[in-house]
Inverse folding.
């Protein structure tokens, strides 16, 4: 539990940062100027953390979990301190990217350290505890950010990371000292693969961030970025096939369960993050909630995710069976998103909350289980790279989901408002949709407010229909996942697990849960 305390704080730092910073952004722009760089405060952070995630995972495999995890925390703290000291928007964007590089190692580091010290059979209940961090970040982050902005100084939105991070750094320095480390002195880093990975991830994130907002989807910029993404990706695959220590071992994708878990992680990220991002739009524009209350209204979903995740983790640890959870979770997520597609101006908050509970229960079944399957399907020596790959796929799914579903929402909203408003808009044409805020909407005539609320409902419905369609794909993927017995550090794997089990189990594994535990030999059983 002492070790978990350090890991939980590190996970909290990774999830909390953007939530705290978001309410402070208008004040930051007013203080530093540079409104045209506003989006880069977030984009720079997301881009850097996404690109760094698989690299941190592989470095953990090569150098040891302790040194890489502590380095990522230290880098995140340095970036946070520099962000708080920024004197202009250019500095802030650069330091946010530095902060993002550290953040990329926090989440993958937490999961990889858990994989190092806890065998898969018992890991689910600890990963369930990590899920409890999500509601704290989702709900507490905006509240803390608003309080800091209103009563302190926006710079404390970054400085608040320092005391938490220092505690995590000190705790992890001592409790992770027994983790294995590289003693050979020989480390072969796949620099070419890391560079190509960074290029194609960066261009892909830029496409999802800029497409439909900064540039049209058919513009030369987006098409050019697409070409660079494809070329860099193909070159990356070619390099990884020949590299002695590939930054993302392609061999892990040969395991069917790993590939299916990765695909399901992508679908979960696409449907969940893309859909959840739009819920506050409906709550504020249609149901009339404030920005703070819209965050609190997400609590049913977050609590449901936490409860189901903890219960599911305990169930997996007790029975060793997990295959039903991805299927049930995909069904619940699909049902929740489909019900969100039926919402309209007359939908009550109580009914919306019940839909959130359904979606949250699906999230609770899926979030930790997909990671558990991915880790159990990879050799122990590659568990960091496997964790990084699974986290990366979820992040990329979320980025694409936010971009694509967001574009569907805004385009449908603008078209619906334009077609229905006409002269009744009282001077508010479709060109004002992009600049509309909840405060501005409430100052307009009642008939315009109703027309805009109807248009928002149309946009939400269309986005959630496509989100539900993506979640249905997740059901199909989940049905093909095999049950491969969860391996332990001190017992042979079950026989009859099939070739997937043999591929998943390493030749040797060290029992690191306790300092005095001897090395245990784990033999992969054939079919």
């Amino acid at each position: 539990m002492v070790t978990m305390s350090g890991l939980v704080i590190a996970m909290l730092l990774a999830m909390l940062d953007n939530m705290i910073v978001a309410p402070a952004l208008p004040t930051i722009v007013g203080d530093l100027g540079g409104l045209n760089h506003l989006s880069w405060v977030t984009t720079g952070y997301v881009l850097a953390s996404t690109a760094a995630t698989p690299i941190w995972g592989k470095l953990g495999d090569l150098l040891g979990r302790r040194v890489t995890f502590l380095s990522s925390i230290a880098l995140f703290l340095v970036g946070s301190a520099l962000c708080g000291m920024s004197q202009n928007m250019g500095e802030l964007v650069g330091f946010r990217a530095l902060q993002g590089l550290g953040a990329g190692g926090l989440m993958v580091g937490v999961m990889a350290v858990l994989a190092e010290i806890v065998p898969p059979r018992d890991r689910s209940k600890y990963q369930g505890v990590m899920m409890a961090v999500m509601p704290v970040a989702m709900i507490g982050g905006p509240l803390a950010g608003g309080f800091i902005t209103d009563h302190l100084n926006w710079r404390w939105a970054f400085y608040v990371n320092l005391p938490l991070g220092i505690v995590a750094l000190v705790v992890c320095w001592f409790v992770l000292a027994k983790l294995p480390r590289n003693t050979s002195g020989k480390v072969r880093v796949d620099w070419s693969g890391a560079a190509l990975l960074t290029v194609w991830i960066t261009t892909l994130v830029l496409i999802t961030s800029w497409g439909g907002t900064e540039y049209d989807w058919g513009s030369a910029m987006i098409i050019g970025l697409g070409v660079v993404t494809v070329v860099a990706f193909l070159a990356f695959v070619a390099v990884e096939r020949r590299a002695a220590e590939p930054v993302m071992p392609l061999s892990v994708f040969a395991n069917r369960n790993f590939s299916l878990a990765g695909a399901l992680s992508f679908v979960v990220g696409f449907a969940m993050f893309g859909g959840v991002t739009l819920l506050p739009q409906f709550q504020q524009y249609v149901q009339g909630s404030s920005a703070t209350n819209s965050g609190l209204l997400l609590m049913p979903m977050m609590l449901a995710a936490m409860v189901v995740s903890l219960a599911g983790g305990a169930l997996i640890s007790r029975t060793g069976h997990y295959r039903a959870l991805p299927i049930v979770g995909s069904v619940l997520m699909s049902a929740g998103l489909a019900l969100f597609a039926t919402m309209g101006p007359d939908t009550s908050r109580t009914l919306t909350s019940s839909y959130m509970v359904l979606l949250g229960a699906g999230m609770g079944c899926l979030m930790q289980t997909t990671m558990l399957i991915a880790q159990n399907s990879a050799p122990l020596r590659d568990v960091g790279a496997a964790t990084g790959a699974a986290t990366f796929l979820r992040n990329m799914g979320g980025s694409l989901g936010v971009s694509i579903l967001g574009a569907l929402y805004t385009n449908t909203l603008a078209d619906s408002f334009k077609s229905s408003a006409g002269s009744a808009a009282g001077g508010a044409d479709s060109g004002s949709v992009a600049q509309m805020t909840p405060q501005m909407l409430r100052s307009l005539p009642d008939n315009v407010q109703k027309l805009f609320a109807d248009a928002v409902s149309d946009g939400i419905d269309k986005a959630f229909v496509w989100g539900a369609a993506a979640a249905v794909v997740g059901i199909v993927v989940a049905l093909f996942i095999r049950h491969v017995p969860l391996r332990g550090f001190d017992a042979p794997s079950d026989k009859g697990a099939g070739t997937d089990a043999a591929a998943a189990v390493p030749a040797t594994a060290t029992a690191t849960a306790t300092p005095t535990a001897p090395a245990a030999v784990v033999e992969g059983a054939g079919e």
About this structure: Residues 510 and 519 are 5 Å apart (CA to CA). The chain is about 75% helix and 0% strand. The longest strand covers residues 508-510.
